[in-house]
Amino acid sequence: MDRRLERAILELLERRGPTATICPSDAARAVYEGDDDGWRALMEPARRAARRLVTAGEVEITQAGRPVDPATARGPIRIRSAR
């Protein structure tokens, strides 16, 4: 599931363009196979996947449009391709 979430994040960003951002919920919904709100259980795994991609230099995590340290980010985040 971890790798599927990472792939989903990268694919969603690629489809949306170089300056676009996504929410971790977009990735959670993309990999969830049900039609109910079970994707919510994938939110923290999606946030962890984003943090791994930050470490790999592939994405940035932002709040209020500015990059933030994934280790200290609290509350809603957005994910964008690394520039």
Please provide a brief summary of the model.
The protein has 83 residues and is an alpha+beta fold.
Fold and architecture overview:
There is one protein chain. The protein has helices at 2-16, 24-31, 43-55; strands spanning 21-22, 59-63, 66-67, 78-81. The N and C termini lie far apart (26 Å). The chain is globular. Strands 1-4-2-3 form a 4-stranded antiparallel β-sheet. With 83 residues, the protein is α+β, with helices and mostly antiparallel strands. Strand 2 and strand 3 (66-67) form a beta hairpin. 43% of the residues lie in helices and 16% in strands.
Secondary-structure topology with pairs:
Blueprint lengths: L1 H15 L4 E2 L1 H8 L11 H13 L3 E5 L2 E2 L10 E4 L2
Antiparallel strand pairs: 1-4, 2-3, 2-4
Helix pairs in contact: 1-2, 1-3, 2-3
The coarse overall form would be globular
Q: Would you count the extended β strands for me?
A: 4
Q: What level of helicity do the residues show?
A: 40-55%
The poorly predicted ranges are none
Strand order of the largest sheet: 1-4-2-3
The main β sheet shows up as: 4 strands, antiparallel
Distance between the termini: 26 Å
Arithmetic mean pLDDT: 95
Beta-strand content bin:
15-25%
Structural class by sheet pairing and helices: alpha+beta
> Which H/E pattern describes the elements?
HEHHEEE
The whole-angstrom Rg is 12 Å
